[in-house]
């Protein structure tokens, strides 16, 4: 029986995999080697699609005459900055004593592409008979890596993911190469070389920004007025805002709403008519509930981190990646799912038990003592196999943090709070709507008080929170 070669996406991950394997390993410049295993690594992308001139020398010249460039097969080339590591990997892949090659790159589309491009470029007849397997990790804890190694996936299972990765890569190349050359040739038609980059993602994104900026510049400010009134009733004081009860949305004036008055004379006239007059008051009450938000996927984590802390999307991804790889505190962050597998309740229970020893321990303890996990067992917003693609939602692992930087701690706190919150009951509010009619003019007062915090307790909300000023009871 030969050796198994595991190729990770980066050196730090390779080192973690080695810790999860049995036996002693010798470390060299490019890989770790033990009795049964060799663990090496890429350094991100080592191989990519080559340039058009590598297909045919005639494409060296940028001209509209040879567009579009639609190769039957896309040429692969080794990136010059990482050629040394690629050469080391290709030798390991071709070694006669290696009979199994395991893709240990990140468990996602990009990790699949990195590995398959390396394998394809290094492929020879000596590689043809070797078994290809997939190591699929949801988190970087030692237990998770060991479980992954015991449950390697067959290469055939990964075919659809490989096809998706190749499709994305080739689409980027086709649009980037052809559109960039076409636009550059057009813009350079009067002389010179005016390079005009165009990309599958960057150009539509730029278009969104340009359109939004055009709307901003075309916006014409308009003055409007609002009427705010103070109402007094035997010592009780509350405020109301004038509303137009006959208001209907106008497609030609999207900025109009029932609280805005567009003519100063009308605002003054209403104020003078109502000043010092008695009001007839009608009041309605209604309870409402607010369910907890779903777990984070990468996009919602990035959006909320930007809103709360001003972190850029790139910065949030880097922090989440560090929490996943270096600290091993969260599950795989590059996910588009906000649910967990339906058989994951035991793992959630273990994480809850561990979280009792950290900052939000009282809420983890409450979730356990009151059986919130069991009550959520059939909650499809939480456990739903149909809403999971390659990875499930971002949640904490069973590890607890040691030393984290301030930004890392903020992201970790967000993930832990969201994990705990979704297990808690809905928040219950008491809503009040008070209408005060003065001389046939209507003033609206609305307020909301938190009666039962439910999941909002995890975020520090307490019963009675709300806009108390608008909710003064009338005699």
From TrEMBL:
GO cellular component: cytoplasmic replication fork
UniProt record, GO biological process: DNA recombination; DNA repair; DNA topological change
EC number: 5.6.2.1
Domain Topo IA-type catalytic intervals: 158-475
Stored InterPro entries: Topo_IA (IPR000380), Topo_IA_2 (IPR003601), Topo_IA_AS (IPR023406), Topo_IA_cen (IPR013497), Topo_IA_cen_sub1 (IPR013824), Topo_IA_cen_sub2 (IPR013825), Topo_IA_cen_sub3 (IPR013826), Topo_IA_core_domain (IPR023405)
Lineage top rank: taxon: Bacteria
Keyword DNA damage set for record: no
Single GO MF descriptor: DNA topoisomerase type I (single strand cut, ATP-independent) activity
Record's keyword annotation contains Transmembrane: no
Alphabetic keyword roster: DNA-binding, Isomerase, Topoisomerase
Catalytic function, reaction form: ATP-independent breakage of single-stranded DNA, followed by passage and rejoining
Pfam families, A to Z: Topoisom_bac, Toprim
CDD domains: TOPRIM_TopoIA_TopoIII
Family statement: Belongs to the type IA topoisomerase family.
Name assigned to this protein: DNA topoisomerase
Species per Swiss-Prot/TrEMBL record: Candidatus Electrothrix communis
Lineage: Bacteria, Pseudomonadati, Thermodesulfobacteriota, Desulfobulbia, Desulfobulbales
């Amino acid at each position: 029986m030969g050796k198994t070669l595991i190729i990770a996406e980066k050196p730090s991950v390779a080192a973690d995999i080695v810790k999860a394997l049995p036996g002693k390993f010798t470390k060299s410049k490019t890989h770790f080697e033990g009795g049964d295993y060799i663990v090496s690594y890429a350094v991100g992308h080592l191989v990519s699609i080559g340039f058009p001139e590598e297909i045919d020398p005639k494409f060296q010249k940028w001209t509209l005459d040879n567009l579009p460039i639609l190769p039957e097969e896309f040429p692969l080339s080794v990136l010059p900055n990482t050629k040394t590591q690629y050469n080391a990997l290709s030798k390991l892949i071709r070694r006669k004593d290696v009979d199994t090659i395991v893709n240990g790159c990140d468990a996602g589309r990009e990790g699949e592409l990195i590995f398959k491009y390396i394998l394809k470029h290094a492929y020879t007849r000596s590689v043809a008979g070797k078994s290809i397997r997939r190591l699929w990790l949801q988190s970087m804890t030692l237990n998770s890596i060991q479980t992954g190694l015991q449950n390697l996936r067959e290469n055939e299972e990964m075919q659809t993911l490989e096809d998706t990765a190749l499709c994305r890569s080739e689409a980027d190349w086709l649009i980037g190469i052809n559109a960039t050359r076409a636009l550059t040739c057009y813009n350079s038609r009067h002389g010179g070389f005016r390079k005009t980059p165009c990309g599958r993602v960057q150009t539509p994104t730029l278009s969104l920004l340009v359109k939004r900026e055009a709307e901003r510049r075309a916006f014409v400010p308009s003055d409007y007025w609002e009427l705010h009134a103070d109402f007094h009733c035997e010592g009780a004081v509350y405020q109301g805002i004038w509303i137009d009860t006959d208001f209907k949305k106008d497609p030609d004036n999207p900025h109009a709403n029932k609280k805005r008055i567009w003519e100063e004379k009308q605002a003054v006239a209403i104020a003078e008519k109502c000043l010092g007059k008695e009001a007839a008051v009608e009041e309605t009450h209604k309870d409402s509930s607010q369910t907890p938000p779903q777990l984070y996927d990468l996009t919602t984590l990035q959006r909320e981190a930007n809103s709360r802390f001003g972190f850029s999307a790139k910065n949030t991804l880097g922090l989440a990646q560090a929490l996943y790889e270096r600290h091993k505190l969260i599950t795989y962050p590059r996910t588009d799912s906000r649910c967990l597998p339906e058989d994951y309740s035991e793992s959630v229970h273990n994480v809850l038990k561990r979280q009792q020893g950290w900052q939000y321990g009282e809420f983890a303890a409450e979730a356990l003592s009151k059986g919130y996990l069991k009550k959520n067992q059939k909650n499809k917003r939480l456990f739903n196999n149909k809403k999971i693609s390659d990875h499930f939602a971002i949640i904490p692992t069973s590890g607890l943090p040691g030393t984290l930087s301030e930004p890392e701690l903020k992201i970790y706190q967000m993930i832990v709070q969201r994990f705990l919150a979704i297990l808690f009951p809905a928040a219950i509010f008491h809503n009040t709507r008070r209408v005060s009619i003065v001389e046939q003019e209507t003033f609206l007062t609305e307020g909301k008080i938190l009666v039962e915090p439910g999941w909002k307790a995890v975020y520090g909300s307490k019963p009675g929170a709300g806009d108390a000023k608008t909710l003064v009871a009338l005699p």
